[in-house]
Specification:
With 342 residues, this protein is an alpha/beta fold. It folds into three domains: 110 residues, 3-Layer(aba) Sandwich (Rossmann fold); 74 residues, 3-Layer(aba) Sandwich (Rossmann fold); 93 residues, Orthogonal Bundle (Arc Repressor Mutant, subunit A). Helix content is 47%, strand content 17%. The chain contains twelve helices and twelve strands. A five-stranded parallel sheet has the order 2-3-1-4-5, with helices on both faces. Strand 8 and strand 9 form a beta hairpin. Helix 1 packs across helix 8 and helix 3 runs antiparallel to helix 5.
Length: 342
């Protein structure tokens, strides 16, 4: 199951994107409405909120009094943090139970305006889709939808921050619904495509490193004066002439005290050493990289396998993890592929 989050600011159109995804049979968890539902149904949560805020915020029926709650946390950042420290873990617990109940779905979606600012939720989502629109268009939509004062809407918008670099996909909602739905379909199609590719076995004999080029490439076909390759991350195709210095990752090894170690085996050793943790980037300190490789490949040759090599291997590892798979084809499978291509 693939878990997406659709996020965006006031008036961006994220709710419309989520509604459209629901019409395509994709389950959507609306974080805001689910939180409000918990305010009304979870008595233990209400009691914990009152304890955290140091005052009673429930009505006679035991539900959260929304006006009382708003007055307590208004302009009081400490009380707002206290509220979130209680509510957000409970919402996450509710989301996990909801997701488990939809275990038969290929894709589920969380709709959340605050996701990017709340690291608590990040480990439970695979891809982030950010919906955005020009600021004036967002103001107009929000004022019309909420029948609200423009200055209040702008003040609410100013309190929201969205880092587009933190999103995996961006949908610009600057036209009509038909265009928004079309752009949503394009993003969904790309997500499904990349997920299928990621779940396929990786043949390092077809993954290329090109001197002077950033990132890895996939071999596509022979050309008259070279080859056609596709960038692993962007899927953009390019022609590499006969003068390009190209190596397949299957032909690359690192030096150890026991001889050379194939890159595929290095990748698998890194995966085992990292466990559930993410790999560092090539910008990590030399000490951090050395410690990781000492754990993964304790026999690596310090005199011939340098930190500069470690940085390159880590970059390759992270790109394979993000855009391919660490499930590699076997030698027998490679032979079958070669025979089919012949």
């Amino acid at each position: 199951m693939l878990t997406l989050v659709v996020t965006g600011g006031i008036g961006s159109g994220k709710s419309e994107v989520c509604h459209y995804l629901e019409t395509k049979g994709i389950p959507v968890y609306d974080s805001d409405s689910r939180a409000k539902s918990l305010y009304d149904s979870d008595r233990e949560l209400v009691e914990r909120i009152s304890a955290a805020l140091g005052c009673r915020i429930s009505d006679d029926s035991g539900k959260v009094d929304r006006k009382a709650l708003a007055s307590v946390i208004f302009s009081d950042s400490r009380r707002l943090e206290a509220l979130e420290s209680v509510v957000h873990p409970r919402v996450l617990e509710d989301f996990i139970a909801w997701r488990d109940a939809h275990s038969g779905a290929d894709i589920v979606v969380m709709e959340s305006a605050i996701f990017l600012q709340k690291p608590l939720f990040h480990p439970y989502v695979d891809k982030v889709v950010l919906v955005d629109a020009p600021i004036e268009m967002r103001v107009m939509r929000a004022c019309r939808r909420d029948n609200a004062d423009e200055q209040k809407i702008r003040a609410r918008m100013a309190a929201q921050t969205f880092d587009t670099a933190a999103a995996d996909y961006l949908i610009i909602n600057d036209s009509g619904l038909d265009v928004l739905h079309e752009r949503t379909d394009m993003v969904l199609k790309e997500i499904v495509k990349q997920e299928k590719q990621k779940n396929m076995k990786t043949n390092l004999a077809r993954i290329l490193s090109v001197s002077g080029q950033h990132g890895l490439f996939t071999f596509i076909a022979q050309a008259r004066n070279g080859i056609i390759a596709e960038a692993l991350s962007t899927k953009k195709r390019t022609a590499l002439d006969a003068h390009s210095r190209v190596n397949t990752l299957a032909d690359i090894s690192i030096y150890t005290s026991e001889g050379e170690m194939k890159l595929q085996d290095v990748f698998l050793a890194l995966k085992e050493a990292l466990g559930d943790a993410q790999a560092p980037t090539s910008k990590a300190s030399a000490d951090e990289l050395k410690a990781l490789f000492a754990k993964a490949v304790p026999t690596y040759d310090e005199d011939r396998f340098y930190v500069s090599h470690m940085k390159k291997v880590i970059d390759w590892y992270n790109e394979i993890v993000s855009f391919a798979s660490l499930d590699f084809v076997t030698e027998g499978e490679e032979e079958e592929v070669a025979e089919e291509e012949a």
